[in-house]
Amino acid sequence: MNEIKNWLLAFRLKTLTAAIVPIFVGTALVKFEGKAVIWSVSLWALASALFIQIGTNLFNDAIDFEKGTDTEERIGPKRVTQSGVIAKKTVYLAGGMSLLAAALCGIPLVLQGGVPILVLGLISLLLGYLYTGGPFPLAYKGLGDIFVILFFGLAAVCGTYFLHLKSLSLGSFVAGLQVGCLSTVLIVINNLRDRDQDRKTNKNTLAVRFGVLFSRIEILFLYLVSFLLLIFWFLQSALPAVYLSLVSLPMAIFVTKSIWSQSPGPVYNQFLAKAALVHVLFGCLFSLGLIL
Question: 10 Å Cβ neighbour count for 144?
Fold first, then answer.
């Protein structure tokens, strides 16, 4: 039982919504446009996205420990490699197996979407490792925020949409940007919380490079983009999507005010959980609104 709990901890279940929400939104967009949803395609896309997310988390766990980023001074959630409950080699192996599973789940998607989906899939698999590994780890170069917007927002939403309609639309880009910005808030809070520890190990996130004020402004900007873009959907007469999405606005305001009023520390774990709730609420209610 303890071993199962340790692996669930390594998978970082609370982060998996970043992979789930954009698939929901992309599928809802298809329904909004009056087209038939191919549910098997959405399910394969969801499975592939989840395995990529899990693989990325596992590599992150092992690599951050290997580079000395995760130590006993860590104030974030427990990491299995750093705490010694799972061996580093085992975590690496599990990460590789997760990406292999993602690739297998992606085969039906390639058959459905062709070369564009093949290219997108290969890049996504590669970056699952290169996010923290390889000679140019994105998270250590301050590129993690851009990565999240691109792959957990634009690529995932637009990719799901493309798999159904073999084309893209302005709406798919707008929705992808909204979801990506909300997901990026999570990594900004995470990096702001870990700023002091990351600086010691040359993990040069944007919080390390530009400071606390920059990260606070970034969070405010990301939320503003996500909610102001609801104007686009208002103009598209997607009124249920607009009104339902606004249910998550008070929580977003709370997170922003909390980040601005309190210094980085363990309390940021609570803000991170609430930001994740904003992401899930917005994504699910927005999707429901599009369907309605």
Answer: 22
